[in-house]
Amino acid sequence: MKRTLLILLALLLFLTVFVGCGNESKTDSSETTKDTSVENNETPNTSDSSEPFYTVKIVNSQNYSIVNPLKSSYAVGEKVTIALETITEHYYRLYVNGMEQSPDESISDDWSVTYYTFTMPAENVIVAIEDVWLEVPDVTQEICQDGNHDWQEVSVNEGCWTINITSACSKCNAEENADGMLVLPNHSWVEEIADGKTTFSCTYGDESITYVSEIGEFSYAQVLENHKIGDPGVKHQSFQNPILEAEISGAIDAIIRAKFELTVEYDTISVSYDEAMDTWCVKFWTVDAEGNSQSVYLNGSGLTTYIVCVE
Asked: What's the rounded Cα separation, in Å, for the pair 191 and 203?
């Protein structure tokens, strides 16, 4: 009986050792497989890799210079940054799934780049970008809105009796044209002398003046003695000649000024000068007709001083 029990115990011990050896062999095989996976750089199936990722798509990205690279996908709660190149006189509107975003000015003070940031939601994101161009006011025009222009004369075009002046403002470049009538004519004369007469013809138009070439002498004091104020045909005030002083340099200047006072028909003009009194006499009269003359007296500054008419 004892012998039989010993045999059973020995058999049980043998089986226990055999089973233990089998388990050790399986453990070694598992460790070998794990080392091979690491060497092949395969990503382990960790808890981080199981979190959901979502995409960001910019629908019109081809139209804009996006400075920073974007990832193919983002985790929920991750900060997404979109950097756009800043353009002068321009700004952007950026929408994330239809919601407009404000620029993030906390990232950098580099004004050459405009930053937008948002937190990745638990869904795919569609980003849309719009351009907004600014209408920059013309500062130079605003300078003169109060009418305080600094006009500088650009050009002057004159006719016999008309003038056109073009001026430009040195501050805002505005231009204006002014048309006006001249107080005194601005003739461009061509002079011809023939048969004792001098003719001045204006190149601007048809006007011409012919007078006796010889400039005579006279005494203005004697005229005042012979033709007193109050006598018939004597006029000493209310003249038509403009009160604008301009030196008379010759007979043609005296004639132009005297014609403002003209009231008679004539076919001849003669000019005399009193050097002592610096006074000119322009006489309008008709040849072969007694009387019917008008003598206009002017000082050296071109102002009428006296008129004597003889009928």
From this structure: 11
pLDDT for 251-285, tens place per residue? 999 999 999 999 999 999 999 999 999 999 999 99
Query: What is the rounded CA–CA span in Å between residue 6 and residue 264?
Result: 176
> Which is nearest to 95 in space by CA: 54, 125, 65?
125
CA distances from 264 to 46, 129, 153, 186, 289 (A): 123, 86, 41, 24, 13
**How far does the chain reach from its first CA to its final CA, in angstroms?**
192
The structure tokens listed for 151 are 């006009």
Please tell me the pTM assigned to this model: 0.52
Count of C-beta atoms within a 10 Å radius of residue 298: 24
Residue 298 makes CB contacts below 8 A (sequence gap 6+) with 241, 248, 254, 257, 258, 279, 280, 282, 304, 305
Distance, CA of 309 to CA of 311 (rounded, Å):
7
Q: 81 has which bridge partners?
A: 117
Distances (CA, A) of 162 to 84, 165, 204: 61, 10, 11
Tokens matching residue 120 = 């990745």
